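Next comes this protein:
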Amino acid sequence: MIASIKINLFCVFFFLIGCTTNIQLQDNLSKNYYNSNYGKYLSASYSVKNGDVKHASEILTTSTKYNQEITLIELAFYSKIINGQFLKAKTLSKKYKNILDKNSFANIPLIALHLKNNELEEALKLIDISDDLPGFDLLAGKVKNLILISKKTNFVNEEIKQIKKNDIFDLITFETFENKDKLTNELLKQNQTVINKFLLFGYLKRKKLLLKKINLVEKILPFNFQANFLNKHFLNKNNLFLRTPNSKLIISSYFVNLANHLSQKNNIPSSYIKMLLEISYFIYPELSISNYYLSEIYEDEKNYNIALNKLNLIFKHSPIYVPSLIKKYKVSKKLNSNKAKIYLKELQNNYYSYINVKYQLADNYRLNKNCSKALKIYDEILKETSNDVNFLFYKASCLEKIGLWKEAKTLFFNIIKLNENDAYSLNYLSYSMAIRNEDLEKANILIDRALKIEPNNGFFLDTLGWIQFKKKRYNLAIYNLQRAIVLQPNSSEIMDHLGDCYLKTGRIKEAVFEWKRALKYDASDKLKKNINIKLKKYE
C-alpha cells in the first residue's frame, strides 16, 4: 500500500509540478500559440509551478475540447480540484472518465459533493476505495463515526467507550450523550486542535458552563485567541459556534486538521494540502480557518496576491478575523501595498485591547526603529501576561537599541534566570557584549550555552566567531564563521565578519570577495556604508 501511495502521488504531481518550463511563458507566447492546446498546457503548467493554480485553471477552462490529450486533461482536472472547483472537476471526470479513472483523485469531486450534501454513506463508499490517498483511511473512520452518531438519539456511557477517544468530541458537538460534565472535563484535559477548542468554547457557552470552566478554557486556547476576545466574539448572533454543529462542520474541520497533520510530512506536496483545505471550504464555507491556512501556503510560495484573496474570504464575525487582519497587514507589507496602513489602522482603532494586536503594533514600531513607542506597548502587554519571557526579550532588545544597555543587560540576565534554556536571549546578550568589548570571557560562556541548545544555528556560530575575532583568535574565528555561512548562506553580516577576519590574516583578496558578496544580499544601509569604506581602501 505504501508503495502505491508513492507511485500515485508521483504520477499526479509530476504533471502539476514537474512538467514546467522556466521561461516566462505568459509574456512570450504568441496569441495563436497560446490558444493552442500545447501552448495552454505549457502556460498552465508554468502557473502551477509558481503556485498560481487559479490562473492555470482559468487558462484551461477556456478550452472546451482537449482532443483526448492526456497531459492536458489531467492538468486541467488537477488544477481544478486544487483550486476548489469541484463542480467543474466533476464535469471533466465524467467527460473523460476513460482517462481520469486511472487513480483515486478522480473520486475527489464526488466525495466533496456528497459530503457537502450530507450524503455520508455515499461519500464513505468512495472514500473506502480511495484509501491510497494520504489520510483517507483516517477520514473513513471519521465518517463512519458520524454515520453512527447521526443514527442515535442518545448515547449511554457504555456506548461512548466503544468510540475512539479522539472522536469523543463528536459526541459533544451533537450533544447526544449522558454525563456531559464528566466528558467535558476529560476533553479539557486533552490536547485539542484549534477548531475543536473553538467548538468546545461554543459548547460551554451554549450550555452556560463557561464561567464554571473559564480557567481551564483559558489554558487550552492558543495565543491568538484569548478567552476575553472569544467571549465577546461569541455574543455575535452570526457566529457559527453558537449553534449546535452538524456533520458538515465536523467533516470540514476534520479536513483542516488532516491538512495540518499531513503538512508535517516531507513527502506530501503543498498541492495536496491545498486540495484538502479547499474541500474543507467547499463543504462548509463559514469555517473560514481553511482560507487562513491556504493563505499561509500561498504566502510561503510568495504568491502574495492569492494569499490576500484567501484572507479576504474570511468573514468579519469569524473568530479568526483578527489574526487574518494581522496577516493581511503583513502580506500587504511584502507587496509594498498602501493597504498595509489601512489594515494597521483598523487593528489599532478596533482591536487594540487584544494582546496579539498589541504585539503586532509594538513589533511594527520596533522594526521601524521607533523603540520608544514599542516599549510602552510591551510594558502594557507584560502587565497582562505575567512577565512572559518572549515579551521580556522584545523589551530588552528595544532597550538595547535605544542605548539603554545597562537596563537591557539586567533584563536579559533576568530572562535567563527565568529560562536557562532561552538560547536566543543567551545569543543576543553574548553578541551585545562582544560588540562592546565587554567581558568577552563571560560572553564566550553565554554563547557556548546557546550552542549546546542549538549547535547548528548559523547566527549563534557567527556570535562565537565574532567573540573569537575580538579575542584575536582569527583562525578559529574564520573556522566558525565559515561554518556559520554554510548554515546561513544569505547573511550579509556573517560575510562581513568573515571578510574582517580574512583581512586580519592577510588574505585581502578573500576579504574583498566576502565584502562584495555581502553587498549583493539584504545588508542594512549602515552595513553597506561600512563595507564600501573598506572596499575603497583595500580593493
